[in-house]
Specification:
The complex is a heterodimer. Chain A has no helices and 11 strands. By secondary structure, chain A is mainly beta. In chain A, strands 2, 4, 5, 6, 9, 10 and 11 form a 7-stranded mixed beta sheet that branches. Chain A starts with a strand and ends with a strand. Chain B is mostly beta strands. Chain B has no helices and 11 strands. In chain B, the strands form 2 sheets. In chain B, strands 2, 4, 5, 9, 10 and 11 form a 6-stranded mixed beta sheet that branches. Chain B has a 5-stranded antiparallel beta sheet with strand order 1-3-8-7-6, with no helix packed on it. Classes of the chains: A mainly beta, B mainly beta. Chains A and B meet through strand 5 and strand 9 of A and strand 4 and strand 5 of B.
């Protein structure tokens, strides 16, 4: 079945370390997104990519980096510059040119910084 | 700029009672509107969406929502709550700006069902 796979599901890291969250999709979707979810704050857009080798900053990109070398993959690196990285991270994808922009989400990765 | 306001971060209803989750939006152009549901430690699933046409939209699991332009609202309802409806619900808006279809989410409403 087609879908989005995020890994790892749970991740613990020490303060100051960079971590990379994986996101892979086999839906043949053009666009991919990373959201951060904190209690009571809903989902906030970190980065998005509409085509391979191109991506744009979202609303809270500081302290994060991404790459889009393949259509299927959109990894997110949480760098040591991110002041409060503990959160639930959600990857999503959609068909570009679908104006209704329906997102398909992965199951999420929970990052805890000790 | 677009925005979404969900009234009530927590809503509790008895099993079998009406579910009403409120959502108001702000958009400078005609919007696309969505409701997503999230079960604990999972991603979001689409419940329903409004694009054009009929303003009463039916979704999965017996939910529906009505787009009211004059009230800038898109409230989610279900006639009879079931225990399995306990989850967090997010309203979202997307502006019809081709090439810039980003979703803006509300802060969510956690629905609790009382047996």
């Amino acid at each position: 079945d087609g879908g989005i796979t995020q890994s790892p599901k749970y991740l613990f890291r020490k303060e100051g370390q960079n971590v990379t969250l994986s996101c892979e999709q086999n839906l043949n979707h053009d666009a991919m997104y990373w959201y951060r979810q904190d209690p009571g704050q809903g989902l906030r857009l970190i980065y998005y990519s509409q085509i391979v080798n191109d991506f744009q900053k979202g609303d809270i990109a500081e302290g994060y980096s991404v790459s889009r070398e393949k259509k299927e993959s959109f990894p997110l690196t949480v760098t040591s510059a991110q002041k409060n990285p503990t959160a639930f991270y959600l990857c999503a994808s959609s068909i570009f040119r679908d104006r209704a922009n329906v997102l398909t989400f992965g199951a999420g990765s929970r990052l805890t910084v000790l | 700029a677009q925005s979404v306001t969900q009234l009530g971060s927590h809503v509790s209803v008895s099993e079998g009672a009406l579910v009403l989750l409120r959502c108001n939006y702000s958009s400078s152009v005609p919007p696309y509107l969505f409701w997503y549901v999230q079960y604990p430690n999972q991603g979001l699933q689409l419940l329903l969406k409004y694009t054009t046409g009929a303003t009463l939209v039916k979704g999965i699991n017996g939910f529906e929502a009505e787009f009211k332009k004059s009230e800038t609202s898109f409230h989610l309802t279900k006639p009879s709550a079931h225990m399995s409806d306990a989850a967090e619900y997010f309203c979202a808006v997307s502006e019809r700006d081709f090439g810039n279809e980003k979703l803006t989410f509300g802060t969510g409403t956690r629905l609790t069902i009382i047996p």
